[in-house]
UniProtKB/TrEMBL annotation, chains A, B:
InterPro entries in UniProt: aa-tRNA-synth_II (IPR006195), aa-tRNA-synth_II/BPL/LPL (IPR045864), Anticodon-bd (IPR004154), Anticodon-bd_dom_sf (IPR036621), His-tRNA-ligase (IPR015807), HisRS-like_core (IPR041715), HisRS/HisZ (IPR004516)
Record-given protein name: Histidine--tRNA ligase
SUPFAM superfamilies: Class II aaRS ABD-related, Class II aaRS and biotin synthetases
Aminoacyl-transfer RNA synthetases class-II family profile domain ranges (all copies): 22-351
Domain of life: Bacteria
CDD domains: HisRS-like_core
Protein family (similarity comment): Belongs to the class-II aminoacyl-tRNA synthetase family.
Length: 451, 451
């Protein structure tokens, strides 16, 4: 039934079985950690009204996929229904869900959301058009306690510690620091200045300075902006370093206090996980307090794998405002890079720990009974697809990385199980034998990079 | 930033936290059972070329959602890229994935796939436009061993046994039985006859007989067709009952043997789970052997929650043919009905088992340390959002169904933990206290129907 030409679609990654096991492990660790921290799961529909997707400030550059029933001829679409598009992040649908269900949710509402999102990018190397994000947010009614801004990066720091990856550094800033600082040195155009300073990583300090002067800042202002952006400390010393620049402004004080609280919480709970980095700007248009970015140590050029921040108005229905703070892990981008560089591997390409051999097709039922006994004790297994020679059945297991092959006994013949890696073969009871914990499920581990 | 009107979209269900916990439990049980049986996970992209979606036989009635970049003006779409649509099932993408990756997969390939699918139905009560399916399939190259046709329904029978639902009955038939039987009584138009007999549940035997005669069958042929469709047995006696109808045909013999093998495997492994039901027809156009449907006992009018069958050509590239057998659980439809009837509930609306109270905002760090100690031992918890009066903190836990509130000690004051259901409060050590297993994670259980 399926003779249509097979077409690879650029930007829509799909994983083979062993890679998918790596992805599942990552998603399981993320979910488990979020749940340990009391976040509740949310899954929103894939589509939102296009109005809502376009309505979000500063996202004109996000490419939206529109969704229409093929059966509708152009112009025939029911006018009672809004035009729909696929969501391009998880924040827009979350905000809509909060407004729609505010009366039925308990606030502060802690939710996590792990889902695919879509961006209608033009096909291009390394650009995903479908990818998985894993977000946590806390949203409250009217006011949001500042301690949540310290909590978010510590939850993801725990996620990263539990994953088989290198050291992740979460860089934290507070938007009020540059804002107060800029105002303190007489800069009115805070957003425009930030936008230029944000190019620091890409174009370097000289060009940033030139652009600032071109945009009307004085030489002295530009130097001060660069001095501020250059401050990065693992402890609270960033406060003194900012003070040493001699700038005074109440908004700057607020920002320094808030960032110090976040860094202090990090030093208490996860020393080394957070860094105060005053060049981090992010999403100028809606973040209003703490902002986060995250880099994998030794792979800074890969950019940020996890970012977010605080918004004073995550959502608003005109009467009530819902401030929030959230952080989002770019799961697909992280996995795509780790897998393509061979930095993480799975020990096998199937959940099965055991292949139960079949002696002859007539005794398949006996092999199935062994498998049922193993499964009843939580041991994943499958029964060999055919009563081929044992050598062939062992090769079937070997090709998939299944570590054990079970040879069913009968009458006087004992059951035996063979570890096909070592060749060791021992008598075994289907009601009692258990593999070592590390062989029960596929092991996902960091690997040396491929040459 | 979010003042656009909030719009409910008919057919796109979304769950509140407690309902989502029920859904997660169902999905976890399904995944765990599939993995115990050695199925590997596959996730395919959400979109396929429209050609491929339309190409599948017999699916002209499936409504497809087309996907286009909003940024592309009509007609501007890059001609190098195929027109895309959202998948409406998991079989079409699976078949395409097999063809695309045949050289990198090990056959027989056992995969499970739990994903959203979309159908562009017109908005209508009870019709989902986005819903979750959970499929298993086994596909092989050239030939597929018949024992897989017995395995599929036994795997889903185990899923249903592990779920907090009533008894599911999996009805099994083999397409060769009606085919051989019809040919044996001189009927040439097998497909046309099946299509009419398939209406039995909806319009009853008299009307089916009238339609058959109208379509050119004799009275005697129509009676024989109805006699065959009326046979339903939990054991192997269906074979004798078919034989008693006195019809002979080699294809009928093949079908009876194959169905007997499936029912026999069911009697061995899961007595009562399978029923031979000779009226089951399903997907006339591609199923070629065993077919399955599943009903919840006492709720037969809700229709089938799980169906599938064998195809001789799941996929083909013109040179190689890939026969397969699969079965698909309609997770959203099942959950939607159970939740709307109040037949299943979660014990709480958050993963958190413990709320760690905060004595005063300055000691939040001490509460966070208690939470970290509990989490290190796998106990999900959250820290109270504010240092409100303890009564208010307890109400916060109560509203979410969190069973325990922890009161941090300090100095001479012991830590204490309160079970807010019983009111019992005891001294406790953050490094040692553990809740009962049934309180550790939310309990999802069958409930009496709401009045």
């Amino acid at each position: 039934m399926d003779r249509v030409k097979v077409t690879k679609l650029s930007g829509f990654p799909e994983y083979l079985p062993a890679e998918r096991i790596v992805e599942q492990h990552f998603l399981d660790v993320i979910r488990e950690t979020f749940e340990l921290h009391g976040f509740t799961s949310l899954e929103t529909r894939a589509v939102e009204p296009v109005d809502r997707l376009l309505g979000k400030g500063g996202d004109a550059d996000k490419e939206i996929y529109g969704v229409t029933r093929l059966a509708d001829a152009p112009g025939e679409r029911s006018s009672r229904e809004p035009e729909l598009g696929l969501h391009f992040d998880l924040t827009v649908p979350f905000a809509r869900f909060v407004l729609e269900n505010a009366g039925r949710l308990a606030f502060p509402y802690r939710r996590y959301q792990i889902q695919k999102v879509w961006r209608g990018e033009r096909p291009q190397e390394g650009r995903y058009r479908e990818f998985t994000q894993a977000d946590i947010d806390v949203v409250d009614v009217g006011e949001l306690a500042p301690h949540f801004e310290a909590e978010m990066p510590l939850v993801v720091a725990e996620v990263f510690r539990r994953l088989p990856i290198g050291r992740m550094t979460i860089q934290v800033n507070n938007r009020k620091i540059p804002e107060g600082f800029y105002r303190g040195i007489g800069i009115e155009d805070v957003a425009g200045t930030l936008r230029i300073v944000d190019k620091l990583d890409k174009i370097g300090p000289e060009k940033v300075k030139a652009l600032l002067v071109e945009a009307g800042r004085t030489e002295e202002q530009a130097d001060q902006c660069l001095a501020l952006a250059g401050i990065r400390t693992e402890d609270l010393s960033f406060v003194d370093r900012v003070r040493a620049l001699g700038v005074e402004h109440p908004v700057l004080d607020e920002g320094l206090d808030a960032l110090a609280a976040v860094i202090r919480a990090g030093l208490d709970t996860a020393p080394g996980a957070l860094v105060a980095d005053l060049r981090i700007a992010r999403g100028l248009d809606y973040y209003t307090g703490t902002v986060y970015e995250t880099q994998l140590e030794g792979h800074e050029s890969w950019g940020s794998f996890c970012s977010g921040g605080r918004y004073d108005a995550l959502a608003s229905d005109g009467k009530t405002t819902y401030p929030g703070v959230g952080i989002s892990i770019g799961v697909s981008r992280l996995l795509g890079l780790l897998l393509s560089k061979g930095l993480v591997t799975a020990s096998r390409s199937t959940p099965a720990a055991v292949l139960v051999a079949v002696v002859e097709e007539e005794s398949r039922g006996e092999s199935a009974a062994v498998a049922a006994a193993l499964r009843a004790r939580g041991i994943p297994c499958e029964v060999a697809p055919s009563a081929a020679k044992f050598g062939k059945q062992i090769r079937y297991a070997d090709r998939r990385g299944i570590p054990f092959v079970w040879f069913p006994g009968s009458g006087d013949v004992e059951h035996q199980v063979k570890d096909i890696r070592s060749g060791e073969q021992v008598d075994a009871d289907p009601a009692a034998w258990t593999p070592k914990t590390e062989d029960l499920t596929p092991l996902v581990a960091a690997a040396a990079p491929s040459p």
